[in-house]
Automatic annotation (TrEMBL):
PANTHER family in alphabetical order: AB HYDROLASE-1 DOMAIN-CONTAINING PROTEIN-RELATED (PTHR37017), ESTERASE_LIPASE_THIOESTERASE DOMAIN-CONTAINING PROTEIN (PTHR37017:SF11)
Chain ranges of the AB hydrolase-1 domain: 12-236
Entry superkingdom: Bacteria
Protein name: AB hydrolase-1 domain-containing protein
Taxonomic source organism: Pararhodobacter aggregans
Length: 244
């Protein structure tokens, strides 16, 4: 887990996506902390470098872990990337008073009862589907190196290879469990960061989700699925504006 403090300003919790871990935010954390914010980028259960992969982990376990972290400090800006948006929506609905705003970065933005697979199956693009391989234990998957071209189309080959090398096994339940998004979510300010060249959560799907769950603020980056890697300064600038 990366925790950096630059002073007594906003608290920002960064939630990674599928196959990711806390290191997904490495390019953004120091940019936020340099402006005085308390920044926490941690790995969801089963995703950490020292975690044992498990097929018994899913959305309830993710939500419990993030909720516990959220309640351990003052209210926070809760930021989710990709699958992390599933977790952010559920935690924000459970603890609206603890969330200054919920931010979705090329993220799944579910309504109650929707799973990640429910959402991504609505887009025409295959995403990373063709690159999913069985993981180290039952109920988990890994991504074939060929997924780099879909995940990081705008990264250098070296940066894409390095990012692929640190991905984690993904518990299947994290993608199939239905989100439980209670009525408290309506009270939470929301922002969405569109990524127009995204091949994983496509721009049309992003826009459709925001149409179904309106967000008070919206931003657009002309990049692929992982702006933390390819547009860290631009993404950090957006988050700094929301944290102000």
């Amino acid at each position: 887990m990366a925790v950096q403090r630059g002073g007594p300003m906003a608290r920002i919790l960064l939630i990674h996506g599928a196959w990711g871990n806390g290191s997904s935010w490495t390019g953004v954390v120091p940019l936020l902390a340099a402006q005085g914010h308390q920044v926490e980028a941690f790995s969801l259960p089963g995703h950490g470098r020292n975690d044992t992969p498990s097929g018994d982990i899913g959305q309830p376990e993710y939500v419990a872990a993030v909720e516990a972290r959220l309640l351990a400090g003052p209210p926070a800006l809760l930021v989710g990337h990709s699958m992390g948006g599933m977790v952010v929506a559920q935690v924000a609905a459970r603890q609206p008073a603890q969330v200054s705003a919920a931010v979705f970065v090329a993220a799944l933005l579910p309504r109650d009862g929707e799973s990640l697979l429910d959402l991504v199956q609505r887009q025409d693009a295959p995403g990373v589907r063709d690159f999913v391989r069985p993981g180290p234990v039952r109920g988990t998957t890994l991504l074939d190196p060929g997924a780099a071209g879909v995940l990081f189309p705008d990264a250098t080959p070296q940066a894409a290879a390095a990012a692929m090398a640190v991905l984690s096994p993904q518990p299947n339940r994290g993608q199939t469990d239905k989100a439980v998004v209670g009525p408290g979510f309506a009270a939470v300010p929301k922002a969405y960061v569109f990524c127009t060249e995204d091949r994983v959560v496509t721009h049309p799907l992003q826009r459709a989700m925001v149409a179904a769950t309106p967000c008070e603020a919206a931003f657009t980056l002309d990049c692929g699925h992982v702006p933390m890697l390819t547009r860290p300064k631009a993404l950090a600038g957006i988050l700094l504006g929301l944290a102000a």
